[in-house]
From TrEMBL:
<protein>
    <recommendedName>
        <fullName>PHD finger protein ALFIN-LIKE</fullName>
    </recommendedName>
</protein>
<keyword id="KW-0805">Transcription regulation</keyword>
<feature type="domain" description="PHD-type">
    <location>
        <begin position="200"/>
        <end position="252"/>
    </location>
</feature>
<keyword id="KW-0156">Chromatin regulator</keyword>
<dbReference type="GO" id="GO:0003712">
    <property type="term" value="F:transcription coregulator activity"/>
</dbReference>
<comment type="similarity">
    <text>Belongs to the Alfin family.</text>
</comment>
<keyword id="KW-0862">Zinc</keyword>
<feature type="compositionally biased region" description="Basic and acidic residues">
    <location>
        <begin position="165"/>
        <end position="180"/>
    </location>
</feature>
<dbReference type="Pfam" id="PF00628">
    <property type="entry name" value="PHD"/>
</dbReference>
<keyword id="KW-0863">Zinc-finger</keyword>
<dbReference type="InterPro" id="IPR011011">
    <property type="entry name" value="Znf_FYVE_PHD"/>
</dbReference>
<feature type="region of interest" description="Disordered">
    <location>
        <begin position="144"/>
        <end position="201"/>
    </location>
</feature>
<dbReference type="InterPro" id="IPR044104">
    <property type="entry name" value="PHD_AL_plant"/>
</dbReference>
<comment type="function">
    <text>Histone-binding component that specifically recognizes H3 tails trimethylated on 'Lys-4' (H3K4me3), which mark transcription start sites of virtually all active genes.</text>
</comment>
<comment type="subunit">
    <text>Interacts with H3K4me3 and to a lesser extent with H3K4me2.</text>
</comment>
<dbReference type="GO" id="GO:0006325">
    <property type="term" value="P:chromatin organization"/>
</dbReference>
<keyword id="KW-0804">Transcription</keyword>
Amino acid sequence: MDGPGAYNPRTVEEVFRDFKGRRSGMIKALTSDVQEFYRLCDPDKENLCLYGHPNENWEVNLPAEEVPPELPEPVLGINFARDGMAEKDWLSLVAVHSDAWLLSVAFFFGARFGFDKADRKRLFNMVNDLPTIFEVVAGTSKKQSKDKSSVSNNSSNRSKSNSKRGSEPRPPKFTKPEHKEEEDEEGEGVEEEDDDEQGETQCGACGESYATDEFWICCDLCENWFHGKCVKITPARAEHIKQYKCPSCSNKRARC
């Protein structure tokens, strides 16, 4: 509910700035301003929604009357559930719906102004770098930051032979001795080609390319690399795995 003449971001950067402003406002409502937010969500009133605005303010109000609305609308009736559950659970529920609304607004702008595949992916990656509202409200975002920092420090202190569970995978096919000999023989041209090839490392599960800010793990049997999230392995769990076998290799051994 941004009102007439609402600001319409047109570039990826503008949409992301709009996303961050709305997100900040909603986080305020559910954390520092939570007493006022709780008071405004009176169950005796009609269907109420929590809105975040690009200027980092928030508002509890009735849904837009126009049909269809100018922007996607947040979930209705957050006030009705307020007294029917524990306050912490209620705030978490509102936070989850708020995350869903923020994404819908951001990608509504993306569709409206013709973002292509690369723009949509860039926008999602920018959004995904921020903790969700639910993670902030539940307090898990700080824990995740500590875990990432710990894993990063541990990875940097390991030798190459012990870094298969680190966050910067380098498949064996890129580090075999014969490739080094080729570089010595053919000079800088080959070096550049190897750099390009190295950047195209792909997850054996989803096929997405390698990114330095993601946790990866290598299968000790087939030597393919995987996103930790694709094979459901966390950095903490990886610390206790002596020999990792990907789902495909595990299934093959089971059939044998």
